[in-house]
Amino acid sequence: MLTKSPKGTKDILPNEVYKWQYIEKEIAKVCENFGYREIRTPIFEHTELFQRGVGDTTDIVQKEMYTFLDKGKRSITLRPEGTAGVVRSYIEHGMASLPQPIKLYYNITAYRYENVQKGRYREFHQFGVEAFGSEGPSIDVEVISMIDVLLNRLGISDIELNINSIGCKKCRSDYNAKLKEYIEPKLQNLCKTCVERFDRNPLRIIDCKEEHCKEITKDAPALVDNLCEECHEHLEGVKRGLENLGIEYNIDKNIVRGLDYYTKTVFEFVSKNIGSQGTVCGGGRYDGLVEICGGPPTPGIGFAIGLERLLMVMENQGIEFTAPRSTDIFIATIGDKAQNYAQKLVYDLRKEGINAETDLMGKSVKAQMKYANKLGAYYSIVLGDNEIDTNKAFLKNMDTGEEKEISLDTVIDRLKNIKAESVIKEPNKIGHTEI
Ligand code: HAM
């Protein structure tokens, strides 16, 4: 028990963390290109925020939240998603009085007590975006196009965009009546949760994951066919906008999303090739949420991409990640004098931005060179008393085997030049540069 991480959580180890760092860097670049600024909110919030925000008839709130009383007897919940916290922050910091739209992004961990399976975890990572203050379809198109740009930059090709509209308060209430009329005769065949939701939030029944409930509701009337004029026009605007940018989409009448805050546009990016957890990204508009959480009426829209799933899609597609930069130079040593010299030399190299390593284990010189190879060092130097006394040593290119005698006091400048040159040519490999 003690030596195993809790069910549904995973360590990200040094030999894979570079993939995450690469994706996070690309995310930050795309957000900068689109004018979205990073926001960081707490991992936990007052439970009520999610009850109100995400909705107390959703699976997330009813079944999946990590909720506990803190020592002050406050009910606290680990965030199951990012939107509610960002909305709370938007209200708390009076962002509604700043020039709109407010465009924010975040990279977070989120927590849901889920049935664990491939692509479904209890702690997972989301990259999310929230844009407040704009009600026209152009911001819907903008946030969707951000995802499109990110997926393209990452080289992902096997993902489809599905969109739908689930209307506003007005069309929802007319539609709910129709849906209830359709469901009522079959009510006793639905699961217990669906029966409970029938009066309070019948749309949730459409989103039930139980196979027999899905079968019963598969021919139920769709909200997108029952939109009010304004919501219909909004959806048409989104479609025209996507077409204008050349972004392909499908209309999927079945998308209702698992969170209650959505209005009008909802969308998902789905990969068909990674099995049942193929939804890499979900999002939509939430025009009532800021008000529900105690702020002024404010339109909003956003999405979140599950990073574990994104990585799965990339690996499945055979996308190669830029390997991490290994050690630029390893200084091997023979004897105490050389070891002291090397410790100072690697310190000076590191201060200059060169990745340098030396022996810390008292290994033999042979074992040190073996280790340097394992580290993938691009260059090496072996130092003994003689090298230090004569101020001369051989700088070796570990890839080609080429060796050149150099003055020890020029090592830092040489490495700096080599690195500067190679950064321009091939940023992740300095070893190709001649000494
Ligand atoms: P969501 O659909 O619940 O939406 O989650 C978004 C994405 O997070 C999913 O498409 C999936 O990739 C990933 N995800 C969700 N649950 C898990 C899990 N248990 N394990 C691994 N990955 C998971 C939201 O969270 C909304 N806050 C999105 C949003 C932002 N809508 C508007 N703004």
TrEMBL record:
Residues annotated as domain Aminoacyl-transfer RNA synthetases class-II family profile: 1-324
Keyword list, A-Z: Aminoacyl-tRNA synthetase, ATP-binding, Cytoplasm, Ligase, Nucleotide-binding, Protein biosynthesis
Main location: cytoplasm
Key word Transcription regulation present: no
Subcellular location: Cytoplasm
Pfam families, per database record: HGTP_anticodon (PF03129), tRNA-synt_His (PF13393)
GO cellular component: cytoplasm
GO biological process: histidyl-tRNA aminoacylation
Keyword Lipoprotein among record annotations: no
SUPFAM superfamilies noted in UniProt: Class II aaRS ABD-related (SSF52954), Class II aaRS and biotin synthetases (SSF55681)
EC number(s) per entry: 6.1.1.21
Signal sequence segment: none
Binding site for L-histidine: 81-83, 112, 126, 130, 257, 261-262
Designated name of the protein: Histidine--tRNA ligase
Gene name, Swiss-Prot/TrEMBL: hisS
